[in-house]
Amino acid sequence: MRLYKTLVAAALGTVMSVSGAFAETPADTLVIADAIDDIITLDPAEVSEVGGVLMSQQMYQPLVTFDPADPTKIVGVLAESWEVSEDGKTFTFTMNPNAKFASGNPVTAKDAEYSLQRVILLDSRISFILTQFGITKENVAEKIKAMDDATLVIEVDQKYAQSFVLYVLSSFTGGIVDSVLVKEHEGTREDGSNDYGNAWLKADNSAGSGPYVLTKWDPKVSILMSRNENYWGEAPGVERIFLQHMPESATQRLALEKGDIDIANKLGPDDIGAVEGNGDIQVLEGNSSTIYYMGANVRDEALSNPKVIEAMKYLIDYDGIAETIGRGTIKVHQTMIPDGFLGGNIDYNPYSFDLEKAKALLEESGVSLPITLDTVVWNVPPYPDYAQAVQATMAQAGINLDLQVVDGGPWLDRYRSHDLDIWVGLWGPDYPDPHSNAKAFTVNDPTDPDGAKGNLADRFGWNSGPLSDQVLAAVQEQDTQKRAEMYDEIQRAHTDSSPFLYMFQDSRRVAMRSDVKGVVLGITFSDDRYGAVTKE
């Protein structure tokens, strides 16, 4: 652990001996171990990687949010209240007069206008979260505008379920930046356009109203945040948060047991089980909306055959993986909407390992076997373990997965550019509404055939046919019960026809030192909240 201690000491700017073990982490610092080699930005207008969103959420706040214990409850944050027009298209927010940024500047509707507009104007890979409301570069000035310092008006293109619009605004994309500060650091992009402070926010800078501010970011190594001394809410109980790249479960466990870290975010089942009897360690459990799946790129000739995809769904030992590898950290889940969401909990798991059925389907397909598929896997547990287990069962039917285990950056790059046959990964919703998943996995956008804007159906080359329109109809349905029934029907058809092999839903279990109090586990890995953390 010598190198790790050196990194902590250097990042914190403290004098620590690196020859001996820490008796404990610094009392004023929360030290977290996680896998963060996929992070490329902390700007809320473009951040989307799990670790990046986790840190961004501590620095930036949205207009509204939800209760992690009950996502159906939407509450104001930077907006004190809101009203919706009779036609359902105009949302008027009254800003919270108490809110202020880390700079000391008040949070106004003009800051919210600038922040949400810059998501559209930067045209980042997450801009689709807002452009789905019919907001474009051309009309954004009319669709998102501050009437005065206290009043923000957002106009959407059609009547949606009100909760859907509010959930979208609660996402990390809805983080509000200090427009006065960011405008001072606007620069020019390579094409000569305004970068709206993006380069400045991708350096060691932040401009939020959350409980922490960015102090230092060393990509693929660590992130250091410090207490926001001007925080308008209850002051955080620790002065700093230090997030260290430490992807290996065994290494995290050893560091946690020694007291070198406070929180281990990536412990596997063996290590979770090993620390549960340790009186110095607590294991927190929470709800999770994370889905583990495999995406098949149907641009490949063999994968374009529906019989091959169906056969592959019968070549995964779901129960075996859950029982022998997952052991309490996952459950079998074969639909696109997680349990706990509207439209979830439909208990539709039609596939199980059936070698003979798979072989019969492959014979019907007419595809010449064996076939070899380039399969891209993140080199962080549990992905290699899942991939190796699936590789073994698929090989029995002549489908050979060439596992290409890579760092987080290449893993995401190849996924986004669909430079692969199979992707082994996860999906965490951008907001706790079923449309976050249903749109991504189903809706086809004729203007974006490669799925660069985030539609996975297009990214994996799949035309979902009538399901795309059904999803777009479901998000407009005002009757909550009817809307749930629509998602039930859509999901069953989707599971059976799509090139997505849904396998598991995550069960949150996070280990931390027993003196750490106040951690709120989110419904995704990236939504944990550290604002109320103390170390006793």
UniProtKB/TrEMBL annotation:
Q: Which SUPFAM superfamilies match?
A: Periplasmic binding protein-like II
The coiled-coil regions, if any, are: none
Keywords from the UniProt entry: Signal, Transport
Q: Where in the cell is it found?
A: Periplasm
Q: Which Pfam families match?
A: SBP_bac_5
Protein name per Swiss-Prot or TrEMBL: ABC transporter substrate-binding protein
GO molecular function terms noted in the UniProt entry: peptide transmembrane transporter activity
Q: Which InterPro entries match?
A: Peptide/Ni-bd, SBP_5, SBP_5_dom
Q: Which GO terms describe its biological process?
A: peptide transport
Keyword Ligase among record annotations? no
Protein family per UniProt: Belongs to the bacterial solute-binding protein 5 family.
GO terms for CC? Answer: ATP-binding cassette (ABC) transporter complex; outer membrane-bounded periplasmic space
Q: Does the keyword Signal apply?
A: yes
In the record, which residues are listed under signal peptide? 1-23
Domain named Solute-binding protein family: residues? 73-443
